């Protein structure tokens, strides 16, 4: 069996070419604006209703839609309230060339996009990667010892909205700065949070922990263990 | 990544063994097949040792093997049936020490297929024809003859096909010089296939069919076919013509039946059973293998049952009519795959599992009290004879050939703190299993050790006459004296040898034909055969400091820098092929050109920290060099390859060759104040092994990192636990007493007591077979250095341990725990399981004792356990779960249900978990602590039936499958771990299908077909300071490595060597090398070192051609081959 294309149907070839380029360009979607699902489909992380799309092409089509664009505004408005004017990385990218050179904006833009589309290194490697966002002031924690749930010490990479039902303060994105290392207390709190989560405790949103019904516990284990003191 | 495959130790299990005069002399040899290896063994009739003469890898699956001899010939040929779709006839050439392919006839497609012949071979006992048969339908007969130059000829094939017929066994019937006849166990399934009610299938009978080759018509006819009452499993030819009654013996369940043409009635005799056997009495008994012994006056058969009992079968005849079959219990030996009775009175037993044995037949069992069973004895239908198994009486064990087969598991670590890591190998099956510790080195057998009055400096042996076979004296030199020992029946001190005893000796040797010379610091003494002594004294105060002596010349170096040269008659010239030199612990081997005196092809090896001393010794009739540094090494040539192997022995100081009647090729050596006589018998072996026996088949073991103790799980199917065995024995004893009448009560009680006290070692007599679905297991803690069992936990009957892990839990501090995954009431076919348990033990007493903590019930078989971030991952059937240690059981914390079939292994690195599925290759899973979820993010594209896996780096996994392939797969660099579950919540609808693989796929880096099922893989270094390699062990007992190429030049070179060898030196059994290595997946990025190393056994002109193509000389090529081996291993 051969996968070599047969025939000389140029229009078909052009369609394929276009799709290929589309695929390449479409992959330039900021990581936090889409979720990759384990079955290979994509969910839009911008739209609040999380539409699931089968292919990259469909995601791209969706991203060009009106609904998405309005959610995009809403999303970035909400995501970084302090910065007001901030745009998505893609918008920034699109903006930059037009600022520098106005004669052939389309050409510059295309060149830039193709460059980044064909740029194969540095590759993603979850093992050593640490990508932090700029620090934003963290609102004070009022009544719960819960840290934001999204922090994973190993990866530090966040692509998700917090789970529904998590307290409002958890809506804040991770705020660990690479410049300021985590304080030991904070690290301990974080560790404790992850230990509790991974042993099957779920925060109920009111600052209390409830048992996950799919997880087994010792019969005398009623309350989650307290934060260890050292 | 390009890899080079090297075999460190070839497979040791034997699948077939045949015997005959392959070298054409009177001496009988044995040819064995070890799967893809053909080997020629020669048992030495004097010493009883089995020597390997030749080993050839054939790069194909040997499916049948037969010896045949043309009528009137004296030399046996070898017929090989393989997966090549060809019949191959080989002849052993003793002068070149190689198998020569005489004929190779293609008849079908390659591969092990149903209707392509190769599975069965039968030869006409008179050597006129050979039949090669497939499992189904096809049979071909080739006529063998001689041409005018007495060369063997082979005809075109004659077909004896019959469609819809399965074949169970084929033999050549001995009909003397009538038309050749073949007997076949067949089953015609045509009717059964066409009958949808299944009635025909239930009534289908096996038939015994005779095929006759009509030599006049050049045609094969299906002569006669007869349905059989019992289902036969194999046939034995009965000698015919002038030697016996002809016909065949059919071995079937519980019976052995004699059949022949004409008026001969069938004679049927039940197979005797062991008295008071713990086996299920309903279970049938079959013979599994047989050997025929035939002399001019008599013949008999030895047939072995599946319990290992050998029966001697004789036939009573009355004018060419067989009247009676007689069976007599002979002895019990381990169950064999093949047996050979040699003319010299040896019985070679190629064991099914474990070591192979050579026995001497001391008695034929004719005149003893052992009862003889006969077909003429009246017995009810279904009744049988009973006998009492006993230790060996007729056989005497003379040699044992080590076999690791089957290797179930292996770990490589330096647990003994010896710098060089040891291989800990779990091997064997049932009660014959063992844990073996393999160390690189040659095994040394100590023949004698004697203390001396002081610490000697040197030792020599001398013969009395140049034509003497054996040495006469051992000369031991001390600081101020010389001791002379004479070699006879014993070794004794003598004073009348003529040697000067009051001075140290520098050297001594045989001079001329029958004189001796002794060089000592003050002079040289020449001792003639008649004990007259000539002496030469050093002039003045000078003394001799160094000397060199051979049979005609003596050179001495005096103090003051003077050299004196002595010679006998005109010097006859003397060729040294190799010059060995040593420098600061490094051995140099170089070729000396006898004409020009040039030194070339120098090869160096580092031997140890002390300066190297070299000694010339003889090994298997060839020159060898013993090199002594901090370790002793032997450099020898074995099967056209140079070996330099360390001796697994303490440090020696001086040595010399030694030949006596008891020990024809020994070494006499000194170590501190002892004189030792040593023998090196296992030349060619890379590893020496120490074996510690185990109770059941070892499945896996783990190493406790703090104490280095091993925790081994041993599990056997079809076995009783000790408790059940004792209980059954008690029950049988009680029944015995109850069954007896009033007056026999006392006798019965005595018999019952004797039965209870009887203790036959299971390693020889086998363990009782408990029946399908009966399991027995133990968990053993063992010290791997001493081999002593520190703790032993017996599991209950029908609990089968499948997985083990040693780990720490983050919520319990520094305590170590052992987790054992156990299946309950597992039935293999049709598969059913009542559930499983995970036993949790705490390791106490510095890792020496197991303290039972709790037992966690699970739904399926927990076949894989791996520690993971302070908790454990357990594969329960197809469920992947995270468990934490609880107070009363393990607590399930997280679960993934999306693995396809059955989790056979778990590897972890960071947050990644790599799960091997029994059928669907690898699945990469990510644990998300934050959400307490295990999410599949990548998998493989090929269906691999993974047996074992090993991580090579963060993205790369090496795995092996049950079909004998090794692969390396890697996640592409842009793989994203951060995949999410579908947030829309309708995943139940979409994610249900099993075909719903992960979206990201691994890439294949390398594929290679080893040809033997690989059960362990480990990335490790084998020699201190060496580079890392991937070590694998196979079910057949082989050990091999895959090593990476470090330069493109090397890779290029070896690729060309491989390419040339493929065309210049095609595999022996006719299988194409490339297609063999690509049996299941196209071979990728691996160069076969085993093929490349066959360069050394090619004929010199071909070697020259190949090396010219590579722009090198043959020594350069073989040096490169040696270099890559020594860089990584031995």
So what's the CATH class of the domain at 445-684 in chain B? Mainly Beta
Shape of chain A: elongated
Low-confidence stretches of chain B: 571-577, 985-994
Largest interface: A-B, 38 and 39 residues
Form type of chain B: globular
Low-confidence region ranges of chain A: 81-101, 119-179
Query: Separation of termini of chain A?
Result: 66 Å
Largest sheet of chain B: 5 strands, mixed
Count of DSSP helices of chain B? 11
Mean pLDDT of chain B: 90
Straight-line N-to-C gap of chain B: 23 Å
Q: How many individual β-strands of chain A?
A: 5
**What integer value in Å does the Rg of chain B equal?**
33 Å
Indicate the radius of gyration of chain A in whole angstroms. 22 Å
Structural notes for this entry:
The complex is a heterodimer of chains A (230) and B (1130). Chain A has helices spanning 10-26, 56-63, 66-79, 89-100, 105-118, 184-198; strands at 34-36, 42-44, 52-53, 201-203, 209-211. With 230 residues, chain A is mainly α. Chain A has a domain at 9-77. In chain A, the strands form two sheets. In chain A, strands 1-2-3 form a three-stranded antiparallel beta sheet. A two-stranded antiparallel ribbon of chain A has the order 4-5. In chain A, strand 1 and strand 2 form a beta hairpin. The model of chain A is unreliable at 81-101 and 119-179 (pLDDT under 50). With 1130 residues, chain B is mainly β. Among the domains of chain B are: 445-684, YVTN repeat-like/Quinoprotein amine dehydrogenase (Methylamine Dehydrogenase, Chain H, 7 Propeller), CATH 2.130.10; 898-979 and 994-1009, no CATH class; 1029-1128, DNA polymerase, domain 1 (Orthogonal Bundle), CATH 1.10.150. In chain B, helix 3 packs antiparallel against helix 4 (745-757) and helix 7 (1048-1064) crosses helix 10 (1100-1109). The longest helix of chain B has 18 residues, at 722-739. The radius of gyration of chain B is 33 Å and the shape is globular. Residues 571-577 and 985-994 of chain B have low confidence and may be disordered. At the A-B interface, helix 6 of A face strand 71 and strand 75 of B. Chain A: Residues 183-228 form the Sodium channel modifier 1 acidic C-terminal domain.
């Amino acid at each position: 069996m051969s996968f070599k294309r047969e025939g000389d149907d140029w229009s078909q070839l052009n369609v394929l070419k276009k799709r290929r380029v589309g695929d390449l360009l479409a992959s330039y979607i900021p990581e936090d604006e889409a979720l990759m699902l384990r079955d290979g489909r994509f969910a839009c992380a911008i739209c609040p209703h999380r539409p699931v799309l089968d292919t990259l092409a469909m995601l791209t089509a969706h991203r060009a839609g009106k609904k998405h664009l309005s959610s995009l505004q809403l999303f970035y408005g909400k995501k970084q309230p302090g910065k007001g004017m901030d745009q998505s990385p893609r918008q920034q990218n699109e903006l930059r060339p037009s600022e520098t050179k106005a004669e052939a904006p389309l050409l510059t833009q295309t060149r830039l996009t193709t460059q980044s589309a064909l740029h194969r290194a540095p590759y993603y490697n979850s093992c050593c990667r640490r990508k932090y966002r700029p620090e934003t002031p963290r609102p004070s924690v009022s009544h719960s010892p819960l840290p934001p749930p999204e922090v994973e010490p190993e990866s530090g990479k966040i692509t998700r909205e917090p789970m529904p039902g998590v307290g409002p303060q958890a809506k804040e994105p991770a705020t660990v700065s690479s410049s300021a290392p985590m304080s030991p207390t904070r690290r301990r709190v974080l560790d404790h949070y992850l230990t509790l989560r991974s042993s099957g405790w779920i925060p109920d949103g009111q600052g209390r922990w409830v048992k996950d019904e799919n997880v087994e516990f010792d019969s005398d284990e009623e309350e989650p263990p307290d934060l260890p003191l050292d | 990544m390009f890899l080079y495959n090297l075999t460190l130790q070839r497979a040791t299990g034997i699948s077939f063994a045949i015997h005959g005069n392959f070298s054409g002399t009177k001496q009988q040899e044995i040819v064995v097949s070890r799967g893809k290896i053909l080997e020629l063994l020669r048992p030495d009739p004097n010493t009883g040792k089995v020597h390997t003469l030749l080993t050839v890898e054939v790069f194909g699956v040997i499916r049948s093997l037969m010896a045949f001899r043309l009528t009137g010939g004296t030399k046996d040929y070898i017929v090989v049936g393989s997966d090549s779709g060809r019949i191959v006839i080989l002849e052993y050439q003793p002068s070149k020490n190689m198998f020569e392919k005489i004929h190779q006839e293609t008849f079908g497609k390659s591969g092990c297929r149903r209707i392509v012949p190769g599975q069965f071979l039968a030869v006409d006992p008179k050597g006129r024809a050979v039949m090669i048969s497939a499992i189904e339908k096809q049979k071909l007969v080739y006529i063998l003859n001689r041409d005018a130059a007495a060369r063997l000829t082979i005809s075109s094939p004659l077909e004896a096909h019959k469609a819809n017929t399965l074949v169970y066994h084929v033999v050549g019937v001995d009909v003397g010089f009538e038309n050749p006849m073949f007997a076949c166990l067949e089953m015609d399934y045509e009717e059964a296939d066409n009958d949808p009610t299944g009635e025909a299938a239930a009534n289908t009978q096996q038939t015994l069919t005779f095929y006759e080759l009509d030599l006049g018509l050049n045609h094969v006819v299906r002569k006669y076919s007869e349905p059989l009452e019992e289902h036969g499993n194999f046939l034995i030819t009965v000698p015919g013509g002038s030697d016996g009654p002809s016909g065949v013996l059919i071995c079937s369940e519980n019976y052995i039946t004699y059949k022949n043409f004409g008026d001969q009635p069938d004679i049927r005799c039940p197979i005797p059973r062991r008295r008071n056997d713990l086996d299920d009495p309903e279970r049938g008994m079959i013979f599994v293998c047989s050997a025929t012994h035939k002399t001019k006056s008599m013949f008999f058969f030895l047939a072995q049952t599946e319990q290992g009992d050998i029966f001697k079968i004789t036939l009573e005849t009355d004018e060419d009519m067989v009247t009676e079959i007689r069976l007599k219990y002979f002895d019990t030996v381990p169950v064999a795959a093949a047996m050979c009775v040699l003319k010299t009175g040896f019985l070679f037993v190629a064991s099914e599992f474990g070591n192979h044995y050579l026995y001497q037949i001391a008695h034929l069992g004719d005149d003893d009290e052992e009862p003889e069973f006969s077909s003429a004895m009246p017995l009810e239908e279904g009744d049988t004879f009973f006998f009492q198994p006993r230790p060996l009486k007729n056989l005497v064990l003379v040699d044992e050939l080590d076999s690791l087969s089957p290797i179930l598991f292996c770990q490589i670590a330096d647990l003994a703190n010896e710098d060089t890591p040891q291989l800990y190998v779990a091997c064997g099956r049932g009660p014959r299993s063992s844990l073996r510790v393999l160390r690189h080195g040659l095994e040394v057998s100590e023949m004698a050790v004697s203390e001396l009055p002081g610490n000697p400096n040197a030792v020599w042996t001398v013969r009395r006459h140049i034509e003497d076979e054996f040495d006469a004296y051992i000369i031991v030199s001390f600081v101020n004296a010389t001791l002379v020992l004479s070699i006879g029946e014993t070794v004794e001190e003598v004073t009348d040898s003529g040697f000067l005893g009051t001075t140290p000796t520098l050297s001594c040797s045989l001079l001329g034909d029958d004189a001796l010379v002794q060089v000592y610091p003050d002079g040289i003494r020449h001792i003639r055969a008649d004990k007259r002594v000539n002496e030469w004294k050093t002039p003045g105060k000078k003394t001799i400091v160094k000397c060199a002596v051979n049979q005609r010349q003596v050179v001495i170096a005096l103090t003051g820098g003077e050299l004196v040269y002595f010679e006998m008659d005109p010097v006859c010239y003397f060729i040294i092929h190799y010059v060995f030199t040593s420098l600061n612990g490094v051995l140099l081997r170089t070729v000396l050109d006898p004409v020009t005196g040039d030194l070339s092809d120098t090869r160096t090896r580092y031997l140890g920290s002390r300066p190297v001393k070299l000694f010339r010794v003889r090994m298997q009739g060839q020159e060898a060099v013993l090199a002594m540094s901090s370790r002793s090494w032997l450099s020898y040539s074995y099967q056209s390859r140079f070996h330099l192997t360390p001796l697994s022995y303490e440090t020696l100081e001086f040595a010399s060759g030694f030949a006596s009647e008891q020990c024809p090729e020994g070494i006499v050596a000194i170590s501190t104040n002892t004189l030792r006589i040593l023998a090196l018998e296992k030349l060619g072996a890379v590893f020496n092994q120490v074996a510690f026996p185990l109770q059941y088949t070892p499945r896996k073991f783990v190493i406790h990192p703090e104490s280095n103790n091993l925790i081994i799980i041993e599990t056997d199917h079809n076995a009783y636990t000790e408790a059940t065995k004792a209980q059954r024995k008690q029950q049988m004893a009680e029944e015995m007493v109850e069954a007896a009448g009033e007056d026999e009560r006392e006798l019965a009680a005595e018999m019952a007591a004797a039965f209870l006290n009887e203790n036959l070692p299971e390693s020889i007599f086998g363990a009782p077979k408990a029946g399908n679905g009966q399991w027995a297991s133990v968990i053993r803690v063992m010290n791997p250095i001493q081999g002593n069992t520190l703790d032993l936990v017996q599991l209950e009957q029908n609990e089968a341990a499948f997985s083990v892990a040693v780990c720490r839990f983050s919520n319990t501090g520094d305590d170590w725990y052992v987790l054992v995954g156990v299946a309950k009431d597992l039935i293999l076919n049709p598969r059913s399981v009542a559930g499983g348990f995970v036993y949790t033990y705490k390791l106490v007493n510095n890792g020496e004792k197991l303290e039972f903590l709790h037992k966690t019930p699970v739904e399926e078989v927990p076949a894989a356990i791996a520690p993971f971030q302070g908790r454990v991952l357990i594969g329960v059937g197809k469920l992947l779960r995270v468990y934490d240690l609880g107070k009363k059981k393990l607590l399930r914390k997280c679960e993934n249900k999306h693995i396809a079939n059955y989790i056979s292994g778990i590897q972890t690195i960071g947050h990644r978990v790599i799960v091997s599925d029994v059928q669907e290759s690898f699945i990469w899973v990510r644990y998300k602590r934050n959400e307490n979820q295990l999410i599949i993010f990548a998998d493989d594209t090929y269906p691999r039936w993974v047996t074992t896996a090993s991580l090579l780096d963060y993205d790369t996994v090496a795995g092996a499958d049950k079909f004998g392939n090794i692969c390396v797969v890697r996640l592409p660099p842009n793989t994203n771990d951060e995949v999410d579950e579908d947030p829309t919540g309708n995943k139940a609808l979409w994610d249900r299908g099993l075909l719903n693989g992960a979206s990201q796929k691994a890439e294949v880096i390398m594929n290679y077909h080893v040809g033997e099922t690989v059960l362990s893989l480990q990335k490790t270094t084998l020699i201190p300071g060496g580079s890392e390699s991937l070590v694998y062990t196979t079910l057949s007992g082989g050990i091999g490595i895959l090593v990476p190429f470090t330069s493109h030049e090397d890779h290029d070179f070896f690729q060309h060597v491989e390419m040339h060898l493929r065309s210049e030196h095609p595999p022996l059994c006719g299988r194409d090398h490339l297609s063999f290595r690509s049996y299941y997946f196209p071979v990728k990025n691996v160069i076969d070192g085993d093929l490349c190393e066959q360069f050394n056994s090619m004929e010199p002109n071909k070697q020259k051609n190949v090396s010219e193509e590579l722009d090198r000389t043959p020594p350069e090529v073989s040096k490169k081959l040696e270099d890559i081996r020594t860089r990584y291993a031995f």
